Structures are given as structure tokens and as C-alpha cells.
Amino acid sequence: MREALEDSNYNPSSLHTEGRRARAVLDSARQRMASLLGARSNEIAFTSGGTEADNQALLGVLKLAPPGSHVVSSAIEHHAVLSALDRLHEEGVTVTLLPVGSDGRVDPAEFASALRPTTFLASVMLANNEIGTIQPVAQLAAIAREHGVLFHTDAVQAPSWLPIDVAELGVDLLTLSAHKFYGPKGVGLLYARAGVPIAPHVIGGGQEFGRRSGTQNVLGIVGMAKAFELAVQERPAASARTAALRDRLAAGIQAGIADVRRNGSADGRLANNLNMSFAGVESEALLIALDLEGIAVSAGSACTSGSLDPSHVLAALGIGARWQTGAIRFSLGRTTTDMEIDRVLRTLPALVARLRQPRAQNQGDGPTKKPNGAPLEAQA
Ligand code: PLP
Prior knowledge:
The protein is of the alpha/beta class and 380 residues long. The protein is built from 13 helices and ten strands. 41% of the residues lie in helices and 13% in strands.
């Protein structure tokens, strides 16, 4: 990125020498991304991130669909997909949101029976951002293809942990976001197989094959391509190492703390994700207590602008309210160490015990009010 900043920080659409230099850097990043994804260069359009790519996939494809079209998705998609589906619903598109099992997976048979003659597009994420569950995307995409239905997958959470090849997955559209694989924030892409009808979502100068106007974020794109290359190289070792740390964390929590449950599938999940519920604890209070110890976790979905609305993902698992209220997401990464896992395991039991005490005993011992003034005490 530094090299691109110093040598090629010009407009890649300009015809002068410097512009052509920026174009060459951009083209090479696109070529690298495409070949690592098993795609062709002209099938990759860079965007400002995962949200824009998801929006473009759904709104752009459905814009060209016949009137009365139907779209199938799942109840646990990211809001970037769900909000686009809300918009489509308002515009007259029929939307089916498939439920998931208690393990967080979409049932392929249920998916097949949801498809109708009017179904134009299906969108099911490769891996969930809250519970890490991996969906049987290749199987679902094959079913969609048999029915002549286009298939989009939001693969934002996957690159550091799962192989992604658009031909092997059999998908028509795929979303990526660089910051989920150690690239810069504010850059992503939408793969759209050649021939997939897609209306541009951002219009203007016609960049990105007319699919996404606006001068490209060349530095961000260069950073994304390098980060993706590294993610692909490091994936096998990083996944095995991270999954082992994650499993040690899960086992240690289960051995040291009563009344906990693991959310999502035990095996079919991302190597770095552990979502656990602590009965009798409100996740927000535990998040703050852990933060004061220098341990960063999430409750619900961190992407929702710091809001801690009840998680639609946990609700879709059909788990009881007390488990939904006390859910914490531990996200490990390439740099997570054994010592850090030890520290969480040493710190957590006392914090959970303290938060489980009746409120009177708890007062003066940590935060007792939500920011909005409501009591922090666990809900039923
Ligand atoms: N899709 C999933 C599964 C995500 O986890 C996220 C962000 O966390 C997004 C989409 C949105 O990506 P971005 O933050 O790049 O807009």
C-alpha cells in the first residue's frame, strides 16, 4: 500500500502516464483477487465494503428481475442483506426467509421446497458473523442452479478460515470485505459471474465495468489483494492453530463455569468463533466487565453501530430468552496467543459469579446502570 501511495496514487481512469501506472496497479490487484477466487478479472467489481456489495447483489439483480419475482434467503443473514430484502419487499418483491435449525444451519431440503417458479435469486451466507456456522453453500447453490435460480453468498466472514473458490462453490455472486481478513477497512468486492444481470447501484462515471461508478480506492484495493493472498497462504496453519485455541477456550469455560451453553454448530463453524451463553448474566454487563480487564468480546452483532439489540441470529436458533440475554461472542484471530486464552479462563469465572449475585450484593461493585439508565439486572 505504501508503494502504491508513493508511486501510483493517481486516477486510474486518467490517460496520462501516471494514470496508466495507477491503472496497471489496479488491474494487477484485480487479477490477483480473481485468480485466487477462481474467477475472471471482469467478474470482480470493487466496492466500499461488504455492505455495499451485499446491497448491490440483491438490489442490483432484483432490479432486472421480472415483476412478481421471489427471493429466498435465511433468517440469520447480516443486516446488509436483511435490510436490502426489506427494501425489496417494500418494492413488491416476495421474500422468503428460511428458518435455521438449532445448530444454525439452513436445511437443503427446506431450501429446495422454498423455491418457486418465480424465484429469481437466493442469498445464503457462507458463514455467520455471530455464531460462525458454516452453511452448505455448494449444496444450496447446486439446488438453485437446477431450478434456474441465481445464487448469492455473503462470504465476508470466511476468507481467513475457509477456502473460497467461486467455481467450487457454484455461486453466481459472492461478497467479500477486506477488513475481515486483515485488509484495510472500507473496501470490498462483489463477484458476479459473467452474464449475471445486475443493475449498477452507484451510478456516474461508469467505472468497474459500469457496475460501480466512482474513482477506485486504489490503495485499499492493493491492500485487500495482498491481505487475501496472505490469508490464502496462511489459512491452513492459521485455521488449525486458531481452532485448537478456540476449543481449549470453550472446554475451559465449560469446565470452570456452570450453566453455560455453546451457540451454533459444534463442528461446522469458523475456526475463530466461539459464541457462549451464561445463564443469569446480561451480556452487556459481562462485556463491560471483561473490557475493564482488557479483554475485548462482543455481544450480539458488533456491526450494528454499537447497538445491543437482541440478536436476530440467536432468536432464530430457538434458544430460550435467558440464553439469548447472556450470549457473548469470543472472536479469536491470527495473533491470539495461548497466554491470552489462559488469562480469559482465569478472569471469567469470578466475573460471571459476581454478575450472577443478586443485585443488592452487586451494587457498588461495577456498573449497575445501562447507558440509558435502565437497570443492568438479568432479564428473565
Ligand atoms: N456481511 C457480514 C457477514 C459481516 O460480518 C459484515 C460485517 O461485519 C458485513 C457483511 C458488512 O461488511 P462491511 O463492514 O465491510 O460493510
